[in-house]
Amino acid sequence: APRTSAPSAPRCWYRGVPREPGTRWMELGCRSCACQGGQVLCEATSCPVTCSHPLPTPAGGCCPNCSGCLHEGVARAEGDVFSPSDGNCTVCVCLAGNVSCITPECPPGSCPSASPADCCSCQPAKCSFQGHTYAHGARFSLDGDDCTTCICQGGEVECSFAPCPMLDCPQHQQHLSPGQCCFTCREPPAPAGCFMDDNGVEFPIGQIWSPGDPCELCICQADGSVSCKRTDCVETCPYPIHTPGQCCPDCSAGCTYMGRIFYNNETFPSVLDPCLSCICLVR
């Protein structure tokens, strides 16, 4: 009997493109497809992660990359050696997507002072002073003496006096108040009055006087200073009466006639004509 050949596997058509039987290809969305028996079978691509710190999926790829490391949000190249941001002299290395860190071992015990550059963290020695124990860096005052400040530095106590400001007053005006560490200036005594240098007369506070000009008045103020002010005469009249010791002329006292002063409504004879009688009328 003649031999018959097995029928060949059919092709697959996917989105208008022919696919040979048994072929595999990748579609968008990380889907793996294959042509089997004339049918296209697709499934989501599984990504087994074989490292502890893989790099994010590159553009166009589906699975994370273990050829580098992603540590604390920073991408590290293969074989990169680095120190973490919060590590105390810790050294890390990136190998095949895995990050391995090594921290140095420090012997226990105390150290003279705390140094940020020291890889080994240690506790500075405490201070024992006058029956009390103080931690490193502690500040305190001596018993009964608030003017002295002490500090514990690596097992040793250093004390110093409180700094005092420079005073701008004479030494006889400086005094030390009870409970205070520094001298202060006394308040100057309140003035008892105003002393006039021109005539040597001292006026009490609140005294008002005229220095010689009747239009000027002065007053002795509470701080010992003298304040003076002139008087402005605003009233005018055609026949003013100037009274000695008075600042402004008097317009209501009467009239001035030929060097004489007459009161209001007063009559007097005319100097030019004895038959004429004059009267003072204040308007």
UniProtKB/TrEMBL annotation:
Cellular component GO terms, alphabetically? cytoplasm; extracellular region
Check the record and name the Pfam families matching this protein. Answer: VWC, VWC2L_2nd
Q: Which UniProt keywords apply?
A: Glycoprotein, Secreted, Signal
Q: Which gene encodes it?
A: Vwce_0
**Protein name per the record:** VWCE protein
Instruction: Tell where it localizes.
Output: Secreted
Tell me the InterPro entries matching this sequence.
Answer: vWF_C/EGF_Fibrillin, VWF_dom
> Which BP terms in the Gene Ontology apply to this protein?
cellular response to virus
The VWFC domain covers 10-67, 67-128, 125-186, 192-252
Say which species the protein is native to: Podargus strigoides (Tawny frogmouth)
